[in-house]
Amino acid sequence: MEKIKKAEEALRKGRVIIIYDGDEREGEADLVFHASFVTPKMIELLRKDGGGLICLALSNEIAERFGIPFYTELLRKAGFDNIACKKTAYGDEPAFSISVNHKTVYTGITDIDRAITIKEIANAAESSNPKGNFIENFYSPGHVFLLISRGIEKRRGHTELAVELARRAGMSGVMVLCEMLGVGRALQKKKAEEYARKKGFVFIEGVEIYEARNR
After folding, report:
1. CATH number of the structural domain spanning residue 185
2. Domain count within the chain
């Protein structure tokens, strides 16, 4: 439980943590922090030290308040069921929803633009009219990829693990994620742990989060 408490405290202080999902899943380590603390510098850190796709994980409750679906649902409704991913290589449906930009950004891809979009989604999630705020102030497609948690009881991906930590920390379910990449593959767990020690980041494994939930 000591590791869990350190991760929760780091999130409340706006710090980056690293979540390793597990050898039985993607075998990937993600840089993670709460969206309310986003800055262009933090996006630059993810881009340079992570290198994967920068995404924003939402709790299922927030996604429902925004009225946004899973991307696979959109494909099926559009008649593209044959290409909609039914199961990933590690056994479950993807968490991807739509991608968005905030209406005030330019191209949407710069560190500044993505920080604006992420910050404004975090603000919208706390507003009195989340769906209206979302529809009025964002457009799709964009450069921030939204993910929807299916709940840690149903799925144990980075999306669910990050949102679970936010819940435990008493924070809203809006978490920024980015995979850490190595040469030609995901960064090895050992190297991700070394990076965490060097930076002073909390490194936590999915099984630790899942077991804490069960306790």
Report:
1. 3.90.870.10
2. 1
CA 31 to chain centre: 9
Q: Which residues are tagged catalytic?
A: 30, 55, 90, 101, 143, 179
How far is C-alpha 152 from the chain's CA centre?
Answer: 14
Domain that holds residue 199: 2-214
Helix (H) or strand (E) holding 141, with range, is strand 138-148
**In 3D, which of 61, 203, 76, 66 has the Cα closest to residue 137?**
66
Cβ count near 202 (within 10 Å): 21
| 138-148, strands of its sheet edge to edge | 96-102, 138-148, 51-58, 174-180, 29-34, 17-20, 202-205
Whether the Cβ atoms of residue 197 and residue 189 lie closer than 8 Å to each other: no
Q: What is the pTM of this model?
A: 0.95
Instruction: Identify the pLDDT of residue 19.
Output: 98
Q: What is the pLDDT of residues 162-215, one digit of tens each?
A: 999 999 999 999 999 999 999 999 999 999 999 999 999 999 999 899 988 877
